[in-house]
Amino acid sequence: MTNARASRMALLEVERVSKGFGGVRAVSDVSFTLADGELVGIMGPNGSGKTTLFNLIAGALAPDAGRIRLRGHDIAGLAPHRICARGVARTFQLVRPFAGLTALENVLVGRLYGRAATTRAEAVTEAARLLALVGLEGRAETPAARLTLIDRKRLELARALATAPQLLLLDEFMAGLNPAETATAMALVRRLVDGGLTVLMVEHIVWALMDLARRIIVLSAGEKIAEGPPEAVAADPAVVDVYLGSERGSPMRA
Amino acid sequence: MTAARRERAWAIGILAGLGGLAFLPLVARRDDVLNFVFLILLSITLAQSWNIVAGYAGQVNLGHAAFFGLGALLARSLWIGGTPIVLAMLAGAALATSFALVIGAPAFRLRGAYFAIGTLALGEILRTTVGNVLPEISTLPTATIAGYRLAHRYYLALALAAVSVVTVAALAGSRAGLGMQAIREDEPAAEASGVGALRLKLTALALSTGLAGLAGGLFGYYHISYYPSHAFSPTWTFDALLMTFIGGVGTLHGPVLGAILYIVLKEYLAVRWVDFHLLIFGALFIAIVLLLPGGLVQAATRGRRLFARGEV
Questions:
Q1: Rounded to whole angstroms, how far apart are CA atoms B68 and B160?
Q2: Which of A70, A78, A160, B28 makes a 20 to 30 Å CA pair with B258?
Q3: What is the ipTM of this complex?
Q4: Which residues, including other chains, have CB under 8 Å from residue A218's CB and lie 6 or more apart?
Q5: CB pairs under 8 A between A and B
Q6: What is the side-by-side strand order in the sheet with A215-220?
Q7: Phi, psi at residue B138, to the nearest 5°?
């Protein structure tokens, strides 16, 4: 019984987490769980607290209240590098590779400091494999500053994967990509999930999120207003209200 | 790993050059030549030490003179008291590093320009206090002056310059060095990739100030008359900064090339225009930061690229 429960223990449990900045409650009483191998999407209008929620899980911010558990261990308030060492990796909304380092060095940082600390020779082999996985073969010696936007996103993903995460947080991974690039990026994410990785993604490109995720969480003004399969969420009156405005309320915006 | 291979080639080249300089005292009969090269060697060590914390870890330390001064102060006092000079220098370095670690933890709560300003204030505080507590000039005892051998100082400077180059070369190729560079590029992103930033910044500071303390000790051993406040002068910080920027910050060879160029130019300009060299260096520094933030190293790469384009 206990074994069965343990094996079904959630990978990530976010429990009644809140974070405020001065008078603004950026995240308010949000709870959800993630099981191993899931791909869950988070959507919501600008300023609804999506990135703050990511920062809380990854340790860039400490919550004011609530618990965040990774495999049952509380990680709320730990330093980002300690949370990374426990298996949470992230990408940033505005892509942040190490501009002055080569692509290979970028990925090596993740490999040498993340959860899978290995010898340098193994790390180089693994970093090269990850660069190929994200489609950057042949770019190993290129400084990150000279890569195009999608290549910098690919690089950041490879760096995150190099830390050997159990959970990957993708913050608007598709933003700024053209349709062909978006399709490539989606295929890449799908391949990672097929490989057993658990992914939590914030995305503004709703159709991409609807297509990828089995479950979607909707935030508005820091609160969770809906959670469920994409079709159910899309039909939820509260969600429609947030995205399109209510019939009685303010006029529709593009 | 072409970049790493190029760095290794530079390391070998620089060490070979330093090895060649070991024969200089046998050839050069004049002390001014040895004094001049001594100054270059001391500058290489000082610039290289500043380069570790500022160039690799990206923390612009403007209080570097404090650590040079502490090393000079303790090493000189111990040496005059009878301690062998190498032990005295090591003690000076240990003092500089211990002090750095004590102030490092709070100082690293400051980021970017605030860290630079904070360390600048620290250096000045130390200069004023030490200048007031120990106001008198310390002159070497007559017996010591009689036994003064410039060649001893020269070889010690040569060894120290080699140690600083080997230290930076080893650091640049190491896991710790890569982590420091990641912090320099983007600290939050480095932390998100598993890099414990505070610990690595303290490591960089410890290495950097240890070398600066050794360089200070060497200066205390070299200079015959000695004002305690002189070794704490901000000149040591800004000389190191200028040399590193002229040569190329965050590279192994930048501080070496920068130190050579800076000392040669300074001697030449000081002879011709006395104190005007400060003005010229100020202008040179501004020009480098604006036009060539990568220093001579970048100029060379750019020149090569222009040349290659011309050939096509």
A1: 14
A2: B28
A3: 0.89
A4: A42, A43, A44, A224, A225, A226, A227, A233, A236, A238, A239, A242
A5: 84
A6: A88-90, A167-171, A198-202, A39-43, A215-220, A223-228
A7: -100, 120
Q: Inter-chain contact A100–B185, Cβ cutoff 8 Å?
A: yes
Q: How confident is the model at residue B297 (pLDDT cuts 50, 70, 90)?
A: low
Residue that the structure tokens 């890099």 belong to:
B195
Q: Rounded to whole angstroms, how far apart are CA atoms B96 and B75?
A: 11
What pLDDT is stored for residue A240 in this prediction?
87
What would the 3-class secondary structure string for B208-249 be?
A: HHHHHHHHHHHHHHHCCEECHHHHHCHHHHHHHHHHHHHHCC
Is there a contact between B189 and A120 if contact means CB atoms under 8 Å apart? no
> Where on the phi/psi map is residue B96: left (φ > 0), alpha (ψ -120 to 50), or beta?
alpha
Measured in degrees and rounded to the nearest 5, phi and psi for residue B134 equal: -120, 75
The mean pLDDT of B180-203, rounded to a whole number, is 95
Pairing label, strands A65-70, A12-21: antiparallel
Q: What is the largest CA-CA distance in chain A?
A: 64
Q: Which residues in chain A touch residue B189, judged by CB atoms under 8 angstroms apart?
A: 92, 96-98
Minimum-distance CB partner of B191 among A80, A112, A160? A80
Residues of chain B contacting A114 with CB distance shorter than 8 Å? 193-194
C-alpha–C-alpha distance, residues B175 and B104, integer Å: 21
Domain residue ranges of chain A, discontinuous segments joined by +:
98-163
Q: Is the dihedral of CA B292, B296, B298, B301 positive or negative?
A: positive
If you search the block for the tokens 């008078």, which residue do you land on?
A: A23
* Helix, strand or coil, per DSSP, at residue A214: coil
**pLDDT tens for each residue of A230-239:** 999 988 988 8
Torsion-angle region of residue A44: left (phi > 0), alpha (psi -120 to 50) or beta?
left
Compute the average pLDDT of residues A142-149: 93
| pLDDT tens per residue across span A11-37 | 999 999 999 998 889 999 999 999 999
CB atoms A81 and B179 under 8 Å: no
Q: pTM of this prediction?
A: 0.89
- B132 or A60: whose pLDDT is higher? A60
Cα–Cα dist B199/B196, whole Å = 6
Per-residue pLDDT tens digits for B33-68: 999 999 999 999 999 999 999 999 999 999 999 999
**What DSSP string describes A234-249?**
HH-HHHHHHHH--SSS
Question: Residue A171 pairs with which residues in a beta bridge?
Answer: A202
**Residue B195 to residue A140: CA distance in whole angstroms:** 21
- Cβ neighbour number for residue B197 with a 10 Å cutoff: 20
What tokens were used for B54?
């500022």
Q: Is there a contact between B87 and B95 (Cβ–Cβ < 8 Å)?
A: no
